[in-house]
Amino acid sequence: MIEFVKEFNLPMEAIDFIIPIPLHKTRLREREFNQAEVLSNYIALEFNKRVRNDILRRKRYTQTQTELKENQRFANVRDSFGLDKPQEIKGKNLLLVDDILTTGATSSEAAYVLKQAEANIVFVLTLAN
Questions:
Q1: Which terminus of the chain, N or C, has less C-beta within 10 A?
Q2: What's the pLDDT band for 63 if we cut at 50, 70, 90?
Q3: CA 93/CA 6 separation, integer angstroms
Q4: In this structure, is the dihedral angle defined by the CA atoms of residues 29, 35, 38 and 44, taken in order, positive or negative?
Q5: Tens digits of residue pLDDT in 42-55
Q6: DSSP-derived secondary structure letter, 23
Q7: In angstroms, rounded to a whole number, what is the distance separating the alpha carbons of residues 117 and 83?
Q8: Backbone angles phi and psi of 93, in degrees to 5
Q9: What is the maximum span of the chain, computed from C-alpha positions, in angstroms?
Q10: Which residues are bridge partners to 123 per DSSP?
């Protein structure tokens, strides 16, 4: 991901915070780590950015997206994210990080919530698609 950012000159200087896609506490307990947060930490270290894992949260448990068809994925994640400290992202440029992008349902829903809180720009970066 770091090499991709460098090769394609993504505007990291414009990023105020990196926000990993959060896992619901139940899924986090099952996995024992959040892969999006691990990726975010590496990116933040390389580009001297701050990871904010205290802003976006999963407010309800959702079925894993891998088991669903495209149209079901958007319904599955609808209204599944909430914000803590929304005032801290108002007017900010954010980099939303996840491990995989298939239909874009998860990142779209997360970005929508961030934009509703008046984030300026929300970029999305994923490891795979």
A1: C
A2: low
A3: 18
A4: negative
A5: 999 999 999 999 99
A6: P
A7: 8
A8: -100, 125
A9: 38
A10: 95
Helix/strand/coil for 65: helix
pTM for this entry: 0.89
| Structure confidence at residue 61 (pLDDT) | 75
The mean pLDDT of 55-81, rounded to a whole number, is 81
| Strands 81-83 and 56-58, bridge-based pairing | antiparallel
- Single-letter code of the amino acid located at 59: K
Residue 103 has pLDDT above 90, yes or no: no
pLDDT for 89: 96
CA distance 12 to 125: 11
What are the residue ranges spanned by the domains of the chain?
A: 2-128
Nearest to residue 122, comparing CAs of 90, 99, 87? 90
* CATH class of the structural domain 2-128: alpha beta
Residue with tokens 């929304």: 86
Q: Decide: 1 and 43 in contact? Cβ < 8 Å.
A: yes
